Structure formats: C-alpha cells, structure tokens
C-alpha cells in the first residue's frame, strides 16, 4: 500500500451499527384525498388550455409504440405520465365542483384563492366552504378517477 491509501483509511469516518431501540419507526400518514384533488385542480385551472396538443401526446397517435435506435419500444416519461394523471384528476375535480350549487362553487373557488371576492354578502363564507367541501368529498369518493385517493 502506498502512503496516500493508508492515510485515507486512517482518516475515514468510523461507522457503527445502529441498535434496534435507536431506530425510529414513523407511521405512514395517508394524505387527505380532498386536498390532493384540490391541488391538482388548481394546477389544472392554471394550466394552458391547449396543453393536450403537444408533441409528446401526439406521438401515441401514430399507431402504437415508436421504435428507438436499439429496436426497443420508446419508454414513457414518468414526469409526463404523472402530469397526465394529475390533469385527469384536476378535470374530474372541476366537473364535480361545477355540479355543486353556485354558492358552494364560489366557496370552493374562494377557499382555494382562485376567486378574490365573495359574491354572497348575506352568507357566511366559512360555513359555506365547510358545507361545500363536505359535499365535494362525497362526490369525489364516488368518482372513478378520484376514488382511489380516499
């Protein structure tokens, strides 16, 4: 061994075995399905209306998978797949929100900071938002696209 390798071995950090009682086991907390749906919906509302006409989406219409240079089928981009799933959830959430009464629709918009004013001066916004979120949760639990989040 040369002198450099010996000095690196002497200066290497010492590793120790962690005992079982020192380990912390954190329980998994499932995120709230309504919050996830509303986050996807806000992203969907802020998105470009022509978002589904891009090159990445259109390549699937050419008749199946494209062949790469090595002959293997083109692999799907994970980011693109997650974004497409989020947009589907956002569109489904938008449909469920639009099926609510007008005061509840406006309460959802206001509570998600999409609307800046409250159009119902004789109604309590906090009460209407709580009722709207309750009704929206029930509708989203029954929807095929969003039921797995609850």
Describe the structure.
By secondary structure, this protein is mostly helical. Helices cover 51% and strands 0% of the residues. It has helices spanning 3-11, 33-46, 55-58, 78-98, 102-111, 125-142. Mean pLDDT is 81; it is low at 61-65.
In short:
The chain is mainly α and 150 residues long. The chain contains six helices and no strands.
How are the SSEs ordered, and which strands pair?
Layout (H helix, E strand, L loop, with lengths): L2 H9 L21 H14 L8 H4 L19 H21 L3 H10 L13 H18 L8
Helix pairs in contact: 2-4, 5-6
Number of strands: 0
Summed over residues and divided by their number, the pLDDT gives a mean of 81
Question: Helical content, roughly?
Answer: 40-55%
Residue runs with pLDDT of under 50 for 5 or more positions: 61-65
How many whole angstroms does the radius of gyration measure? Answer: 25 Å
- End-to-end Cα distance: 60 Å
What is the helix tally?
6
Strand % is under 5%
By secondary-structure content and strand pairing, the structural class works out as: mainly alpha
- Overall morphology: elongated
Biggest beta-sheet profile: none
Please trace the helix and strand order, writing H or E for each element.
HHHHHH
